[in-house]
Design brief:
The complex is a heterodimer of chains A (about 260) and B (about 280).
Chain A: H1 3-16, H2 19-24, H3 31-52, H4 54-60, H5 62-75, H6 90-97, H7 102-118, E1 139-143, E2 148-154, H8 156-165, E3 174-186, E4 189-195, H9 197-207, H10 212-223, H11 225-241, E5 245-250
Antiparallel strand pairs in A: 1-5, 2-3, 3-4
Helix pairs in contact in A: 1-3, 3-5, 4-5, 4-7, 5-6, 6-7, 7-8, 10-11
Chain B: E1 8-11, H1 17-22, E2 29-33, H2 42-54, E3 57-60, H3 74-87, E4 92-95, E5 98-101, E6 104-110, H4 116-133, E7 138-140, H5 155-166, E8 169-173, H6 174-184, H7 188-194, E9 200-205, E10 209-210, E11 215-216, H8 225-234, E12 242-245, H9 254-275
Parallel strand pairs in B: 1-2, 1-12, 2-3, 3-4, 4-7, 7-8, 8-9, 9-12
Antiparallel strand pairs in B: 5-6, 10-11
Helix pairs in contact in B: 4-5
Classes of the chains: A alpha+beta (about 260), B alpha/beta (about 280).
């Protein structure tokens, strides 16, 4: 047997307990060792998911979580060099397993995104004092690289917070209209905040490079001069307070103002 | 000529971060798992930078997969090279094993058959890794649970040939020798005597557990007496060598690991005295 065939057989055994592969690898002689590696494989992935999704596990319970982990290992074999990447696809697995309970996948996404933000790239945020000289007619905002967004349909943020504080979580409630969860890290603390669709769209547009003046214009078109300008100002103030903005460049130059 | 580093160290694990950063722990170096620090940002990398200001650091990897039949991951090597350039480690090591094939990563140290084909492949991979990293690496003998008979050679002869072909060094895990010898029925003394001693730059000492059928390299126990005996046997054969206690699970208070390291220091002193 060539080395690559041997390695493909071991992969088949680990990923789906392929008995024919086990026979080719040595049958009964190799069986005890193969079982050690299968246990190592499953245990390391299970431990990774248990550590990464503590609040999700609290919510659905240990037994249901273990079943979800087993299903996920079959559905998504690990591919990255780092185990830290393995949690990424667990929320979609939970969405498949709990199609009628969307808060489960949303809780899992909060667990996952907070972990990702924790080890994401560093970036120093601007404060109000840093933006006194900004030309707002041409300003383009640059956001912290740990910023991440996901659609939100339930009160998963309130459930997550209650579970984290060890208090009785509220019952599941659907939002009146779909919103989003915003996750980011500031200094060494990861944060999240529920936002509405208007802020979600504004953040995505600004992060894609829309100038702040054009963002204001879009909000004025949508909500009128007074309300649109007011909303733009409130959002900018909130983003600064949350320390989401790490640089401002001008649409007519390339160098961000940091 | 600069003498090889020959201090005594510990694996740096999360429960002990604060003690290592807030006090001067009596070690000559610490070893960290490379992959835990290969993302350039966030708290882990900052902690490693602070640790490096206080202690020499060895980088020990678990995901290079030098035995992968479809080659090494170039992006992984680039990340590791960036970490090396920042940390300037004492040693860079990984295992004689494979974990990745066709995009699948087992995150386990899977065994190789000790064949000519495997030797050619591992040698080519180690050559590529050392070129990418800009330095020689150390290769660690694994604990193994499957004996891929018939092999062309023994594990120790395979390591000897690998060192000769690539110029790499060895990280000798004495516990792994004991575990594999127990699982496969070979003589651990013959293994230790057959290694290329001049290539050994670092030693791991650890504990293991009895599984239902095999000994398992769990790193969740103190170093047992048979492993200390093997350490005492091999030490006189080696040149200056770094020694450390490796504990990854059921991690005890730091003073217990330092006591174990004290045993290693005592054995090393007695070995030198006996040799003199």
């Amino acid at each position: 047997m060539t080395l690559i065939d041997l390695q493909r057989d071991m992969r088949a055994w680990l990923a789906r307990e392929d008995d024919a592969a086990a026979t080719r690898l040595g049958g009964e002689d190799a069986a005890p060792g193969l079982r050690v590696h299968r246990n190592n494989f499953r245990a390391s992935l299970a431990a990774c998911l248990e550590e990464s999704f503590a609040r999700t596990r609290d919510w659905i319970g240990d037994e249901a979580f273990a079943r979800a982990v087993a299903a996920h290992i079959l559905r998504v074999p690990p591919s990255s060099w780092t185990l830290d990447a393995y949690p990424r696809d667990f929320p979609p697995t939970l969405a498949l397993l709990y199609p009628g309970d969307p808060e489960v996948a949303e809780l899992a996404w909060i667990d996952f995104a907070l972990g990702e933000a924790f080890v994401g790239p560093d970036a120093a945020a601007l404060t109000a004092a840093d933006i006194t000289e900004v030309d707002w007619d041409a300003a383009v905002l640059h956001f912290t690289p740990t910023l991440d967004l996901r659609d939100l349909t339930t009160n998963a943020t309130a459930i997550w917070s209650a579970l984290a504080e060890g208090v009785e979580p509220p019952g599941v409630a659907y939002l009146p209209e779909q919103g989003a969860i915003l996750v980011w890290r500031e200094a060494e603390t990861a944060h999240f905040r529920a936002i509405d669709q208007i802020e979600r769209q504004a953040l995505l547009a600004a992060r894609a490079g829309l100038s702040f003046a054009d963002l204001c214009a879009e909000l004025v078109d949508r909500f009128g001069q007074e309300d649109g300008t007011s909303r733009a100002g409130e959002m900018l103030g909130q983003w600064l307070a949350d320390r989401l903005i790490v640089a401002i460049s001008h649409s007519d130059d390339d160098a961000p103002h940091q | 000529m600069i003498a090889p580093f020959a201090g005594f160290g510990l694996g740096l694990r999360k429960p002990h971060y604060a003690e290592f950063l807030e006090t001067k722990v009596a070690v000559d170096f610490v070893e960290v798992i490379s992959e835990n620090f290969m993302i350039p940002g966030g708290r882990p990398r900052r902690i490693l930078r602070e640790v490096r200001e206080r202690y020499p650091v060895a980088l020990h990897g678990v995901s290079m997969s030098i035995g992968s039949a479809d080659g090494l991951d170039g992006a992984y090597l680039a990340r590791l090279r960036a970490l090396i350039d920042e940390i300037d480690p004492l040693f860079v090591s990984d295992h004689l094993s494979w974990s990745r094939i066709d995009g699948f990563n087992s995150h386990d140290l899977l065994p190789l058959p000790y064949t000519r084909e495997a030797l050619d492949l591992v040698s080519a991979n180690v050559d590529r890794a050392q070129n990418a990293l800009g330095r020689a690496m150390l290769v660690e003998n694994p604990s193994t649970y499957i004996d891929f008979a018939p092999a062309d050679t023994t594990e120790w002869a395979f390591l000897d040939a690998l060192c000769a072909r690539t110029g790499c060094g060895l990280l000798l895990d004495v516990n792994n020798v004991f575990v594999s010898a127990s699982n496969h029925g070979f003589d651990p003394i013959a293994y230790l005597d057959g290694l290329p001693h001049a290539r050994v730059r670092q030693i791991h000492l650890a504990g293991h557990s009895q599984g239902s059928e095999l000994l398992i390299d769990t790193h969740d126990q103190p170093v047992p007496d048979p492993v200390w005996s093997l350490y005492a046997h091999v030490l006189p054969k080696l040149g200056p060598v770094a020694t450390m206690i490796e504990r990854d699970d059921a991690i005890p208070p730091l003073h217990e690991l330092l006591a174990e390291l004290g045993t290693a220091r005592r054995i090393a002193r007695e070995t030198v005295r006996t040799a003199a």
